[in-house]
Amino acid sequence: MVIKRAKTQGFCFGVAITVKKAEEVVARPASNVTTLGHVVHNPQMVAELEAKGLKNAHSVDEVDSGTLFVRAHGLPTDVFEKAKAKGLTIVDATCPMVTKIHVQAEKLKADGYKIVVVGDPSHPEVKGTLSHVPGAWVVQAPSDVDALPRGSRIGVVVQSTWSGTGFTDIVKRLSEKYYEVRAVNTICTDTHNRQSEAEDLAKDVDVMVVVGGKTSANTKHLADLAASHGARSYHIEGPDELQPAWFAGVARAGLMSGASTPGWLVDQVADRMDALSRRAV
Ligand code: SF4
Questions:
Q1: What proportion of the chain, given as a percentage, has pLDDT over 90?
Q2: Nearest Cα residue to 44 out of 217, 260, 242, 209
């Protein structure tokens, strides 16, 4: 079996920066570092960082001392304020691509546009973006546009890991309803590359394995995308989940990963796929 690996795999650059910074901060003497929510959507990486001392809390209210580590998704502005008021040291590892979304949204608002954020309102990144443009509307599907109030000038930004086609369809529907729509495609380059590689690779293989945390929306989306482009797709967190039957009679298999999956884990999956395919023949 030939294993065709996507060009873009392992950590995206934003997660790579976050993980490096987290490792540096927890290695400091007497470090007392807490992050809100897991630092990456990857159980192996989370376990590794927790073993090095990184703590995890649900809310800043639970953190009374030490350092608050801000992961790549960023945090809402009021959480930053609370952390400052509590005297916490803040290490901000918000991905520069996410900060760019905040800046673009604020700029559109200052220019008089009513802001629409395309994304999942329960996603931490979107919560952070909304805090920069209070009163913005959130849209997840073209049909959501029908329920929006009337208006004239609409400024649009999009969650960094959203699907490109989903964004285009929503902007099209907004353009049909409003007089002026100014949309900034803030889907990050890494997401764009992984999505287009998932589509291309899926057309060329029988089976696609996508490695990433089960809570990672971008990984799940890659697996769905590959399935919709013709490959039998499996979303796994690690090599132990692979099953020999998946590769029986398969000549070409694809392998890719979500943005928060370390490269070494993808290598382990590749090795195991290779071993299993030999057993399955
Ligand atoms: S997926 Fe994109 S926006 Fe999110 S952390 Fe990675 S590079 Fe940054």
A1: 86
A2: 260
Residue pointed to by tokens 């930053």: 80
241 is catalytic: no
- Ligand 1 centre to CA of 268 (Å) is 23
Residue of 42, 98, 101 to test ligand 1 pocket, by largest number of atoms within 8 Å of CB: 98
> Which among 23, 24, 125, 197 is annotated as catalytic?
125
Burial class of residue 230, CB neighbours in 10 A (0-12, 13-18, 19+): middle
What does the domain layout of the chain look like in residue ranges? 2-10+190-280, 13-94, 97-187
Nearest CA to ligand 1 atom 5: 14
pLDDT tens per residue, range 233-242: 999 999 999 9
- Fold identical between 2-10+190-280 and 13-94? no
Q: In the predicted model, what is the mean pLDDT of residues 218-241? A: 94
Distance 269 CA to ligand 1 centre (A): 23
Q: What is the CATH number of domain 97-187?
A: 3.40.1010.20
What fold is seen in the domain 13-94?
A: Rossmann fold (3.40.50)
- Mean pLDDT, range 166-194, rounded to an integer: 96
Over residues 5-27, mean pLDDT: 94
| Distance between Cα 166 and ligand 1 center (Å) | 18
What is the pLDDT averaged over residues 163-167?
84
* CATH number for region 2-10+190-280: 3.40.1010.20
Establish whether residue 193 lines the binding site of ligand 1, counting it when its CB lies within 6 angstroms of any ligand atom. no
pTM: 0.91
**Alpha-carbon distance values, 250 to 72, 207, 226 (Å):** 38, 7, 16
Which atom of ligand 1 is closest in space to residue 12's alpha carbon? 6
